[in-house]
């Protein structure tokens, strides 16, 4: 798809400086933008790129413009970052959505779908599945029996949804994520571990996004729940019967153990671990790699393994870094103390 | 499937209090059980739920019953938890197993299968594969050449088994787990890393369960082995030539590096890492996020990175938490010592 | 495939001691080699195996041979390890490569492939994909539109490559790895997190190998880049717009956050985490489980979370392990100090 500077400017109510017929063939960040590219400058520290950039068109925040002549065509707007976002969303919309069931998909006769649903090749849709209007199910997805998927969802290639799981509206699930595998529940006996049947499901509420290669286990009984608007990165473990509230962000490779309850608007860092059966309040920040082993109140900031108050952890860690010196000081004190005693 | 209280009671030799024709339409934990549900109470702390629960039927341990009238139908048994497990296992059995090779599966003519094997759509069964009676291979699984799979196994959708790997009887492997990918072996040369061919395989002994999105690498030569009855959670890394014994449990996101040997009945916590070429004995407990970098004897309990005795780690960590105070005390001692010297 | 000792010796210019017609039916490490196996001894500590090994043929470094009679046939060479590697590579070559598009693959009419390309069953090749000569695409792979794949690549079963990603020559990608899923980019608003479109791609340069179950996210704008010859283990997270240079090795379960730039010849340990927006130089070693939160210069060795100089970390950790004793010493000093003052 090609656009002119004039077309772009009209989408975002921009003012053109330069040739309004300049053709745009691609998009790039200003540092690496090349011929034909559209880019943007929204911060003063990138202003130097304006003069010599090789790209075709740059969207610039009005206040960053000066009198110097620009080589690329400029589209001046109030907030270049915001305008650029609007454009990118438009661009994605224009990429078009597929619809219909592709040849080679297996679609059970008892399954039902809304309007404009797309089911890709080699995808299996099992008994009594319901899929809402506009949802895009890519090729090679597995959808177990009695699964419900809402409207306008996107399930990328290789997603697996086990029986009875429920996905709300506007959810995105990236490739090879598994929703509803068995929780890790075994009873020790003298002959070995006996499997505890995992009979619950997973519920994703509306507007949830889950990255690639995540594992969201089904509840033993009842549901594992990911609340509305929560965003989950890649390679994340959510164990059985975890309940996660609204608008949380969880970074890659974090793990949450069984039955833990998490509130709203929390930020969980990459590779953090949270033990089972605890409560995390709201607006808690957990630093990357932390190991949270007790409940956390609203607004806490945690760090370390086991995790403690982040400020405290950092102060103590400074002393840890000086530990060799500190021990030398203790050695000296002991030496002096002994000298004193021997006097 | 619907059941009556009377049918349920007959399965577990229970005594009914209330209407033995009460219909059960689902199962839930007592905290969230709703109309029509079957639940159970096996611990004193849940007894208060008995009176007002909205669910249809509750299985209760005999000793927890009192004289008060109950709203739901009660089935009294000796151990409600155990009886409930028995029921759940029965229920899963009754769900029925599929058999036959579904349309759209690729099944090589040299492959052989036992009775009542199920092969789902879009699954590939390569040359000379052998699959034992009763095994259930879900859709979209890849089984490489010369792979052997025992009896009554379940391989969920998206499992990949590379050439020559061996899976015992009664094993369960969850979606998107990879068995037999190449070990991470490269020789450094001045021009870059040269791949060392990975010619071994993976052997899962009987009764092994592996969660979703795990990576079990093949041996460079010889086998990577997961011993009988060992249970592995999700997103776990088992490197080339690791040997794991019997009846271990390994929690999510743990990783074990190459050629390490692990005994029996160990418990390895979530996100723990174990370096290569060491020995872990039997009945060792490794706390979550620990980094084990030297061999461990039978019965050790480890924590920290690098991991040390867990009790020791916790005691030292208490001092770490007080480090700022401890440094203040040293400052004071130095001040006093100086005062003394200057006297 | 069967070989004689004489055939093997001819491949590696070896000198035979014993029966040159001995048949080889398999390959194993010397500790577990059985009848019919070929093995090798390249280190003095394995010499005792030579006399009694049950295997058929052993390749031995010339300098390790003595006068004692050997039961297996011996092939003497200068460097047994090197000769064995050469053989193993030959063996893999001989396994044969498939070519052609298997029945059941979906291959878009606008896609183009070079000579001797193999496309497995249930693989989807989308619009305008280009695949270079000799590449092997296993079954059940998804290749999005406009993807370019170079020559002699291997993509194992279940790999997902999102639209517009680029893979160089001689790359290997193991099962269920995802290349090009969306970066984790959201703008907080009072109503929840707003998705930032992820419009870039992923570029793997030549000779890159990526293990199983990895997630390599596409750039927000521009590319996430894995440089030439870099080797990546299993279950690894590479976030959006990360740039990794040449000849790095990254061990399992490591994670690198967004926009971080990594030089050449670095070694990153298992489960290590690197925060976003920093620079790692060249020949840096990052120990397993480290949490790197600031830029690192060439040749640094890092350990700990947050990571510091590895030697320093280890020295301080020794004191941490003695923390209880150290606190006792401080208690004593305070007691003595008080005694002195009270004198």
UniProtKB/TrEMBL annotation, chains A, B, C:
Pathway: Bacterial outer membrane biogenesis; LPS lipid A biosynthesis. Catalyzes the N-acylation of UDP-3-O-acylglucosamine using 3-hydroxyacyl-ACP as the acyl donor. Is involved in the biosynthesis of lipid A, a phosphorylated glycolipid that anchors the lipopolysaccharide to the outer membrane of the cell. Homotrimer. The keyword Lyase does not apply. The active site is at 240 (proton acceptor). It comes from the Bacteria. Keywords: Acyltransferase, Lipid A biosynthesis, Lipid biosynthesis, Lipid metabolism, Repeat, Transferase. This is UDP-3-O-acylglucosamine N-acyltransferase. It is an enzyme of class 2 (transferase). It catalyses: a UDP-3-O-[(3R)-3-hydroxyacyl]-alpha-D-glucosamine + a (3R)-hydroxyacyl-[ACP] = a UDP-2-N,3-O-bis[(3R)-3-hydroxyacyl]-alpha-D-glucosamine + holo-[ACP] + H(+). Residues 23-89 form the UDP-3-O-[3-hydroxymyristoyl] glucosamine N-acyltransferase non-repeat region domain. Belongs to the transferase hexapeptide repeat family. LpxD subfamily. HAMAP family: LpxD. SUPFAM superfamilies: Trimeric LpxA-like enzymes. Its EC number is 2.3.1.191.
């Amino acid at each position: 798809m090609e656009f002119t500077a004039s077309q772009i400017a009209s989408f975002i109510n921009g003012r053109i400086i330069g040739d309004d017929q300049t053709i745009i063939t691609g998009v790039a960040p200003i540092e690496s933008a090349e011929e034909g590219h559209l880019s943007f400058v929204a911060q003063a520290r990138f202003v130097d790129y304006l003069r010599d950039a090789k790209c075709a068109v740059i969207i610039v925040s009005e206040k960053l413009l000066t009198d110097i002549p620009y080589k690329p065509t400029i589209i001046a707007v109030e907030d270049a970052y915001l305008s650029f976002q609007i454009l990118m969303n438009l661009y994605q919309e224009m990429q078009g959505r597929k619809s219909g069931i592709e040849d080679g998909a297996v679609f059970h006769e008892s399954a039902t779908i809304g309007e404009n649903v797309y089911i890709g090749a080699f995808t299996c849709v099992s008994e009594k599945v319901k899929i809402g209007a506009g949802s895009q199910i890519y090729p090679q997805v597995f959808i177990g029996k009695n699964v419900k998927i809402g409207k306008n969802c996107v399930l990328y290639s290789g997603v697996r949804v086990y029986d009875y799981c429920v996905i709300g509206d506007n959810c995105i699930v990236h490739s090879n994520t598994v929703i509803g595998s068995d929780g890790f529940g075994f009873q020790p006996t003298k002959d070995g571990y006996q499997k505890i049947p995992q009979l619950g499901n997973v519920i994703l509420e509306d507007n949830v996004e889950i990255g690639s290669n995540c594992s969201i286990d089904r509840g033993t009984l009842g549901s594992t729940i990911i609340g509305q608007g929560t965003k989950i990165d890649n390679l994340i473990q959510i164990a059985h019967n975890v309940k996660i509230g609204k608008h949380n962000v969880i970074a890659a490779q974090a793990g949450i153990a069984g039955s833990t309850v998490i509130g709203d608007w929390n930020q969980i860092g990459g590779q953090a671990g949270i033990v089972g059966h605890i409560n995390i309040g709201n607006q808690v920040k957990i630093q990357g790699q932390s190991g949270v082993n007790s409940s956390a109140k609203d607004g806490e900031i945690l760090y370390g393994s086991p995790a403690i108050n982040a400020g405290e952890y950092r102060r103590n860690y400074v002393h840890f870094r000086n530990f060799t010196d500190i021990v030398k000081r203790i050695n000296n004190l002991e030496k002096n103390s002994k000298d004193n005693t021997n006097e």
